TrEMBL record:
<keyword id="KW-0627">Porphyrin biosynthesis</keyword>
<dbReference type="GO" id="GO:0006783">
    <property type="term" value="P:heme biosynthetic process"/>
</dbReference>
<dbReference type="InterPro" id="IPR033644">
    <property type="entry name" value="Ferrochelatase_C"/>
</dbReference>
<comment type="pathway">
    <text>Porphyrin-containing compound metabolism; protoheme biosynthesis; protoheme from protoporphyrin-IX: step 1/1.</text>
</comment>
<keyword id="KW-0408">Iron</keyword>
<dbReference type="GO" id="GO:0005737">
    <property type="term" value="C:cytoplasm"/>
</dbReference>
<comment type="function">
    <text>Catalyzes the ferrous insertion into protoporphyrin IX.</text>
</comment>
<keyword id="KW-0963">Cytoplasm</keyword>
<keyword id="KW-0456">Lyase</keyword>
<keyword id="KW-0350">Heme biosynthesis</keyword>
<comment type="similarity">
    <text>Belongs to the ferrochelatase family.</text>
</comment>
<dbReference type="InterPro" id="IPR033659">
    <property type="entry name" value="Ferrochelatase_N"/>
</dbReference>
<dbReference type="Pfam" id="PF00762">
    <property type="entry name" value="Ferrochelatase"/>
</dbReference>
<dbReference type="InterPro" id="IPR001015">
    <property type="entry name" value="Ferrochelatase"/>
</dbReference>
<feature type="binding site">
    <location>
        <position position="291"/>
    </location>
    <ligand>
        <name>Fe(2+)</name>
    </ligand>
</feature>
<feature type="binding site">
    <location>
        <position position="210"/>
    </location>
    <ligand>
        <name>Fe(2+)</name>
    </ligand>
</feature>
<dbReference type="GO" id="GO:0004325">
    <property type="term" value="F:ferrochelatase activity"/>
</dbReference>
Length: 363
């Protein structure tokens, strides 16, 4: 066995290609306890996600969490599952397909694939597929606008791990974040304005971001600041006064302190203080998923109404919105700048090229 991957020898005349790999978190293959156990087992074993002593965490994960959580989570996934599968998978695949079209229209002929950090299709399998298609330059573009070590850096880890066992490593570039990209902010604003045009405007706009342990902020993770900046820019773009919006953090996991204020307690407090209608948007999620469709649009809605609120308006994620696809295409193009996009001398078949190929020269 070779230490590094055995790869087909370079095929003479194969054009070299540039590629974009869109990466998202991942989702279970089915809304069943068995599929959830596999997915959560991979996800929660990632030291980037749960940063506590590995032996202790292994005992908690295998002794408690993977025995109880899969069945509970599977029931939640069943409530949002679609004919096409998990919403996160459906939207991510569609975004890759649309991005291919947008970049093609912009005259940027690149390969585009999508991959999941946990579950399928894995980052390694999609990098292998891109290499097999001739990709020699790959831009890794996570679908997380705000950088966090728990998400973005973990995607990068998976790419490095693949590269570490690969013989002929492509040129790689990584997008860290785009929390303040004007196209991203504008796409969010358009989504909200469209909702307001159709349904009127609520008394409060709640911007709910996925949380992370508060400790990570003190250890230097920029996620909190980037989320706050996204919220500030979005509020300014919408012309909202500070009193008209709240920035909150959802999806707390475990007993430690996470970023605050928490989403659900804030909604309950708003209802109790007499706010009758809230509009809730989740700017950190580029596509709808369990955390938005179940946790926000079902659980948080229920909590707000139960506490005396009258109207709860959930504003869907960016998903396949044209403004978002335009922004994503722009973000990709900015990071592709300077890379040759076309194969050098495509189709050239002259004598000097034949001589060069004969002695093993590449395109
Ligand atoms: C255990 C700690 C977790 C951290 C830290 C965390 C950070 C984090 N997550 C997202 C985006 C998503 N998370 C999703 C689901 C999800 N997240 C955790 C835990 C942590 N996330 C769990 C255990 C789960 C699975 C569901 C469950 O059992 O509760 C999802 C949705 C996936 C889907 O299939 O729909 C997304 C998206 C971000 C952006 C983030 C840090 C910034
Ligand atoms: Fe999460
Ligand atoms: Fe901050």
């Amino acid at each position: 066995m070779p230490f590094f991957s055995a790869e087909p020898a370079y095929r003479h005349g194969t054009p070299t290609r540039t590629a974009v790999l869109l990466c998202n978190l991942g989702t279970p293959d089915a809304p069943t306890p068995a599929a959830l156990r596999r997915y959560l087992g991979e996800f929660l074993a990632d030291h980037r996600v749960v940063e506590i002593s590995k032996p202790l965490w292994w005992l908690i994960l295998h002794g408690i969490i993977l025995r109880t959580r899969p069945a509970k989570s599977a029931a939640k996934y069943r409530s949002i599952w679609t004919d096409g599968g998990s919403p996160l998978a459906v939207w991510t695949e569609k975004q890759a397909k649309l991005l291919r079209g947008w970049l093609g229209e912009a005259g940027v002929p690149v390969l585009v694939r999508h991959a999941m950090r946990y579950g399928n299709p894995s980052i390694a399998s999609q990098l292998d597929a891109l290499k097999a298609e001739g990709a020699t330059r790959i831009l890794v573009l996570p679908l997380y606008p705000q950088y966090s070590a728990t998400t973005t850096a973990s995607v990068f880890d998976a790419v490095y791990a693949w590269a570490a066992r690969t013989r002929s490593v492509p040129e790689l570039r990584f997008v860290n974040h785009y929390h303040d990209h004007p196209g991203y902010i504008d796409a969010l604003a358009k989504k909200i304005e469209t909702h307001w045009r159709e349904h009127g405007q609520g008394e409060q706009l709640v911007m709910s971001f996925h949380g992370v342990p508060e400790r990570t902020l003190h250890l230097g993770d920029p996620y909190h600041c980037e989320a706050r900046k996204t919220a500030r820019l979005l509020g300014e773009r919408l012309g909202l006064a500070e009193t008209q919006l709240r920035v909150t953090f959802q999806s707390r996991f475990g007993k430690a302190k996470w970023l605050q204020p928490y989403t659900e307690p804030t909604l309950i407090e708003l209802a109790k203080s007499g706010v009758r209608r809230v509009d809730v948007v989740c700017p950190g999620f580029t596509s709808d998923c369990l955390e938005t469709l179940e946790e926000i649009n079902q659980e948080a809605r229920e909590a707000f109404l139960h506490a005396g609120g009258e109207q709860f308006h959930y504003i869907a994620c960016l998903n396949d919105s044209p403004a978002w696809m335009a922004a994503l295409s722009d973000i990709a193009q900015q990071h592709l700048a300077g890379w040759p996009l076309q194969p050098a001398n495509p189709g050239l078949r002259d004598a000097s090229r034949e001589r060069a190929l004969a002695c093993g020269a590449r395109d």
